[in-house]
C-alpha cells in the first residue's frame, strides 16, 4: 500500500466513526480493518485514534492526518481534473451537507443529475437537522440559509427565499380577524422548532419600501422540529404558519394556503452554497457550484415582487 492508499483508507475509517462501520463501508472484515489501522500507526509511529468496535475517537495527530490527508487527496484529484479537457468527466470526491427538507427536495435531485454527468466522481450527501460547519467531519460544501458565519468561507447565493405568513382557508373561515401583526396573539400559530433560533419569535419587515422590522412573540399548542409536519398541520387547518417560500409556493398557487398580511412579510432566508477558501481553485468544486446555481434556476418560482 502506498501513502496515498493509507490516506484514503484513514479518511474512510474516520468518516465511518467506528471500526465496525468502516468494515462495512470497505467490504473488509473487522479484523482486517483493525490490523491495517495498526500497521498505519506503526509506520507513522503515532496513535491516530482510540477505538472500540463501536466507537472511534481521533487523537490530535489523527485529526491532523485526517485534515491534511483530505487536502492532499483533494489536490491530487484537482490536478488530474485540470489536466483533462474541460468537458471531460470529473473524478475525486465532494462531501456535501444540507438540511433535511431542502436537501431532499432540491439538493438530492440535482446531485443525482450531476452524478450521471460525472460517473468517476464520488459524491457524499449528508442531510442533518442543523447545518454543520465545513470543519466538522471534513465537508467540502455546506448548503444552508444565511451568509457564512466564518470569514474563511466563501458564499454563493443558490436561491432567493423569504418566509411567508400563511394559513388554510378552512382555518381562516372560523378564526378571529387578522389585520395587523398584533392580531397573531389571538390565533393558533404553528411553531417550527428548528436550528438554535428563538423559534416562537417571528420576525417580519414591512413591504412599504422602508423595510421596517418587527418581531412578534407567538403561541400555539402544535409545534414540531420537522417543518414538513407543520406544513401538513397548516394544510389541515390547524393554524397560522410562517414558512419558507420554497416550501409553500405550490400550496399558495393552488389556493390550499393563503398568504396573510400583505403589508408585512417574513425576513429574507436565502440559501447559500458555502465552501472554504482552499477549494477556490478546485475544478470539481467550480463545476459543481456552476451546475447547482444554473440548475436551481426555475426549480422554485421567483418571489412575488413585494417579497424580493
Task: Describe the overall structure.
- This protein has helices spanning 3-16, 19-26, 30-44, 60-83, 100-117, 169-173, 227-235, 245-254, 283-296, and strands spanning 49-51, 56-58, 91-99, 120-128, 141-145, 153-159, 163-167, 189-192, 201-206, 213-217, 223-224, 240-244, 258-259, 264-266, 271-276.
- The protein is 38% helix and 24% strand.
- The protein is elongated, with a radius of gyration of 23 Å.
- Helix 1 (3-16) packs across helix 2, helix 1 (3-16) packs across helix 4 (60-83) and helix 5 (100-117) packs across helix 9 (283-296).
- Strands 4-3-5-15-6 form a 5-stranded mixed β-sheet. A 5-stranded mixed β-sheet has the order 11-8-12-7-13.
- It is α/β, with parallel strands linked by helices and 308 residues long.
- The longest helix is centred in the N-terminal third of the chain and has 24 residues, at 60-83.
- This is LysR family transcriptional regulator.
- Residues 1-59 form the HTH lysR-type domain.
- Belongs to the LysR transcriptional regulatory family.
- InterPro entries: LysR-type_TF_proteobact-type, LysR_HTH_N, LysR_subst-bd, WH-like_DNA-bd_sf, WH_DNA-bd_sf.
- Keywords: DNA-binding, Transcription, Transcription regulation.
Overall spatial form: elongated
Helix content class: 25-40%
Q: What's the average pLDDT? A: 88
Q: Please count the beta strands (DSSP E, at least 2 residues each).
A: 15
Major sheet size, sense and barrel closure? 5 strands, mixed
Low-pLDDT ranges: none
How far apart the termini lie comes to: 56 Å
State the helix count.
Answer: 9
Helix and strand run: HHHEEHEHEEEEHEEEEHEHEEEH
Structural class, from secondary structure content?
Answer: alpha/beta
Mind telling me the C-alpha Rg? 23 Å
Report strand order across the widest sheet.
4-3-5-15-6
| SS strand fraction | 15-25%
Amino acid at each position: 500500500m502506498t501513502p496515498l492508499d493509507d490516506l484514503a483508507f484513514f479518511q474512510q475509517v474516520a468518516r465511518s466513526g467506528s471500526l465496525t462501520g468502516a468494515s462495512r463501508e470497505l467490504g473488509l472484515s473487522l479484523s482486517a480493518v483493525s490490523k491495517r489501522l495498526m500497521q498505519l500507526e506503526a509506520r507513522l509511529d503515532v496513535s491516530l485514534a482510540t477505538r472500540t468496535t463501536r466507537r472511534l475517537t481521533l487523537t490530535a495527530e489523527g485529526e491532523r492526518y485526517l485534515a491534511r490527508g483530505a487536502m492532499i487527496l483533494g489536490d491530487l484529484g484537482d490536478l488530474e481534473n485540470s489536466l483533462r479537457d474541460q468537458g471531460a468527466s470529473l473524478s475525486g470526491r465532494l462531501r456535501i451537507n444540507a438540511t433535511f427538507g431542502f436537501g431532499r427536495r432540491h439538493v438530492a435531485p440535482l446531485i443525482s443529475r450531476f452524478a450521471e454527468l460525472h460517473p468517476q466522481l464520488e459524491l457524499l450527501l449528508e442531510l442533518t437537522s442543523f447545518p454543520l460547519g465545513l470543519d466538522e467531519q471534513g465537508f467540502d460544501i455546506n448548503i444552508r440559509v444565511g451568509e457564512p458565519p466564518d470569514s474563511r468561507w466563501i458564499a454563493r447565493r443558490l436561491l432567493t427565499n423569504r418566509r411567508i405568513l400563511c394559513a388554510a382557508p378552512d382555518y381562516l373561515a372560523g378564526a378571529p380577524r387578522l389585520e395587523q401583526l398584533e392580531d397573531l396573539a389571538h390565533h393558533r400559530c404553528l411553531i417550527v422548532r428548528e436550528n438554535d433560533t428563538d423559534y416562537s419569535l417571528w420576525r417580519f419587515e414591512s413591504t412599504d419600501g422602508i423595510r421596517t422590522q418587527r418581531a412578534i412573540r407567538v403561541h400555539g399548542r402544535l409545534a414540531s422540529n420537522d417543518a414538513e409536519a407543520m406544513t401538513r398541520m397548516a394544510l389541515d387547518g390547524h393554524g397560522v404558519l410562517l414558512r419558507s417560500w420554497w416550501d409553500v409556493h405550490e400550496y399558495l398557487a393552488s389556493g390550499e394556503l393563503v398568504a396573510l398580511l400583505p403589508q408585512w412579510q417574513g425576513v429574507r432566508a436565502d440559501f447559500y452554497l458555502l465552501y472554504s477558501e482552499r477549494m477556490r481553485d478546485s475544478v470539481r468544486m467550480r463545476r459543481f457550484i456552476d451546475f447547482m446555481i444554473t440548475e436551481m434556476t426555475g426549480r422554485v418560482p421567483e418571489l412575488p415582487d413585494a417579497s424580493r
